[in-house]
């Protein structure tokens, strides 16, 4: 007999109303779905098209795409289908459609992530800009309130300082597009002190100093442990009330994929958070949807891509 884990939230993820409103006020992007002939990507396309936040461009096996649409009673006759066989060819077809300007957003469908990202990074696809690709999660609570952004929890495994600097720039940019004129950005470690034996604290200190000198429209602090990032009470107890970020962060920059992945899943599974993910740094926004994503997270991710695309 399986006992329910008491730490797990029973709340359902909710797509934030403000994201949906912003996306509906923007021009619907053409979203190239790599290998779309499967239930989850087709359901996402149907729901997003109904809300007028996406114009799907389907790539993959035509018979599978049409069969899945028919199961959902989804009339796709007005949308483009780019015929391609298998994961590799479908990923390539979607990436090239974006690179050639026939689509505005690249979205993962029924194919492995490594195959999908290989297609996006293909030099001939035309999506590379010279910037590093970085993943950002926008996580919102079911009851609303201020979201939390978490840096790369899905793409870069052990990002070097240059990659993390690009991640900071893209995170501040995304927060600005979402209406946060002066975001507060925290660099995560296990301590608020710089300790040589804790490399993430040294790196956080270095990154915070760099960010303060290079980015004028945000506040930065690091290293900060998670309690000092989230809890005003912890900030009061440890007497860091003069810190402009502690206890009120809008974004958490993590040192590696393990801490980022664990952190975002904690928000999702322990609070019922809705995690919208987007890859920045390419010619077009890239959506790395997962089979584990609930419909609300898929919808919120499409909203993010629409907002970013509208900004140009």
Account of the 3D structure:
The protein is of the alpha/beta class and 312 residues long. Helix content is 41%, strand content 17%. The strands form two sheets. Strands 8-7-9-6-5-10 form a six-stranded mixed beta sheet, sandwiched between helices. A hairpin with a 7-residue loop joins strand 5 and strand 6 (148-150). Helix 1 crosses helix 11 (295-311), helix 2 crosses helix 11 and helix 4 (86-99) packs parallel to helix 5. The longest helix is centred in the middle third of the chain and has 17 residues, at 161-177. The mean pLDDT is 95.
How large a portion of the residues is in β-strands, by DSSP E? 15-25%
Estimated helix fraction: 40-55%
**Total strands:** 11
Q: Which ranges are low-confidence, i.e. pLDDT below 50, for 5 or more consecutive residues?
A: none
Question: Could you tell me the radius of gyration in angstroms?
Answer: 20 Å
Main beta-sheet strand count, sense and barrel state: 6 strands, mixed
Order of helices and strands: HEHEHEHEHEEHEHEHHEHEEH
Query: What global shape is seen?
Result: globular
Total count of helical runs of at least 4 residues? 11
Q: Could you tell me the mean pLDDT?
A: 95
Q: Distance between the terminal alpha carbons, to the nearest Å?
A: 53 Å
- What class do helices, strands and sheet pairing give? alpha/beta
**Spatial strand arrangement across the major sheet:** 8-7-9-6-5-10
């Amino acid at each position: 007999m399986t006992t329910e884990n008491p730490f797990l939230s029973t709340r359902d993820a909710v797509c934030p109303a403000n994201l949906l409103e912003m996306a509906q006020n923007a021009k619907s992007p053409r979203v190239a779905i790599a290998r779309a002939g499967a239930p989850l990507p087709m359901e996402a396309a149907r729901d997003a098209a109904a809300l007028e936040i996406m114009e799907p461009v389907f790539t993959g096996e035509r018979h599978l795409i049409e069969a899945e649409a028919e199961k959902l009673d989804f009339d796709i006759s007005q949308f483009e289908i780019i015929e391609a066989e298998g994961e590799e060819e479908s990923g390539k077809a979607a990436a090239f459609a974006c690179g050639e300007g026939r689509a505005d957003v690249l979205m993962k469908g029924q194919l492995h992530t490594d195959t999908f990202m290989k297609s996006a990074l293909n030099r001939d696809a035309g999506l590379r800009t010279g910037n590093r690709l970085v993943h950002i999660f926008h996580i919102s609570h079911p009851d609303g309130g201020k979201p939390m952004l978490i840096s790369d929890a899905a793409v870069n495994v052990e990002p070097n300082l240059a990659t993390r600097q690009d991640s900071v720039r893209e995170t501040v940019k995304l927060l600005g597009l979402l209406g946060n004129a002066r975001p507060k950005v925290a660099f995560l470690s296990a301590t608020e002190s710089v300790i040589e034996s804790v490399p993430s604290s040294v790196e956080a200190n270095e990154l915070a100093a760099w960010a303060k000198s290079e980015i004028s429209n945000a506040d930065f602090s690091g290293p900060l442990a998670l309690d000092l990032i989230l809890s005003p009470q912890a900030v009061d107890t440890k007497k860091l009330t003069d810190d402009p970020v502690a206890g009120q962060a809008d974004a958490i920059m993590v040192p590696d994929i393990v801490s980022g992945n664990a952190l975002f899943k904690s928000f999702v599974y322990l609070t019922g958070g809705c995690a919208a993910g987007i890859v920045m740094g390419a010619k077009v926004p890239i959506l790395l949807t997962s089979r584990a994503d609930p419909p609300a997270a898929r919808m919120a991710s499409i909203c993010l891509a629409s907002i970013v695309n509208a900004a140009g």
